[in-house]
Design a protein that fits this description.
By secondary structure, this protein is α/β, with parallel strands linked by helices. It is about 40% helix and about 25% strand. Strands 2-1-3-6-7 form a 5-stranded parallel sheet, sandwiched between helices. Strands 8-9-10-11 form a 4-stranded antiparallel sheet, sandwiched between helices. Strands 4-5 form a two-stranded antiparallel ribbon. Helix 2 runs parallel beside helix 3 and helix 6 packs across helix 8.
Length: about 230
């Protein structure tokens, strides 16, 4: 059962949305603690968030931006704000859909269904220890933030992550980078791997690239060193 979070401050509208969506077969949770709503949404990790823009004590625009920076969660904005500038701003901050109130039940349910299907069909999210990699955009979601990796670094991380614990040969990595294994340029490959290693270290990722000389490369979990005593 798909889980939908409702962020709506008007009680009657909130109850109507919850009832409508529950009758349509969704598990619904309404969030009303405006001081913690952002963190609550990230922790809840629903399949979809329906978000009003006019919220007490917090900007719906700000909430939308933060959610899309921290998670790959789809966001449907449902608001009484019907100005084009508001819609464009919401989309610029990452909103996936924008509907204005009042909205017909059939239209809302259709948009919810389509949005869930769109994200369900996404096979581009790869999971590592403490992070997600969107292999379509090479966006890395880590430590409650997001970073877009340079294309070559994204390709390398995607290839290594997809292999799990298996070794990946230099030929396979070169093919991922340049689309050919006819000429394996070890120097160019090393330059790109070094850049990825530096990025991973700067992001405090709990993995490192390990080299098995003459065989290949793989990702291994970093083991924290224990202090003496």
């Amino acid at each position: 059962m798909k889980r939908i979070a409702i962020v709506e401050d008007e009680p009657f509208m909130r109850e109507e949305l919850c009832s409508m969506l529950e009758k349509a077969g969704y598990a619904v949770q309404a969030l009303t603690d405006w001081e913690t709503v952002g963190n609550s949404l990230v922790a809840l990790a629903p399949d979809l968030a329906i978000l009003d823009l006019n919220l007490p004590g917090i900007s719906g625009f700000e909430l939308c931006r933060d959610l899309k920076q921290k998670t790959p969660m789809p966001v449907l904005v449902l608001t009484s704000r019907d100005q084009m500038k508001d819609e464009l701003q919401a989309f610029s901050l990452g909103a996936d859909e924008y509907l204005t109130k009042p909205c017909r039940k059939e239209r809302l349910l259709a948009r919810v269904s389509n949005l869930l299907k769109r994200y369900e069909g996404r096979t581009n999210l790869l999971e590592g220890p403490g992070y997600l990699l969107d292999r379509q955009t090479y966006t890395l979601y880590i430590h409650n933030s997001s970073v877009v990796l340079p294309k070559n670094q994204g390709k390398l991380l995607e290839t290594l992550l997809s292999a799990g614990n298996a070794l990946v040969s230099a030929e396979v990595l070169c093919n991922a980078l340049w689309g050919t294994t006819e000429f394996v340029d070890e120097n160019a490959l090393q330059v790109n791997l070094t850049r990825l290693k530096k990025t991973m270290a700067n992001l405090d990722m709990h993995q490192k690239i390990v080299v098995v000389r003459g065989v290949g490369y793989r990702l291994e979990a970093e083991v924290a060193e224990c202090a003496d005593g």
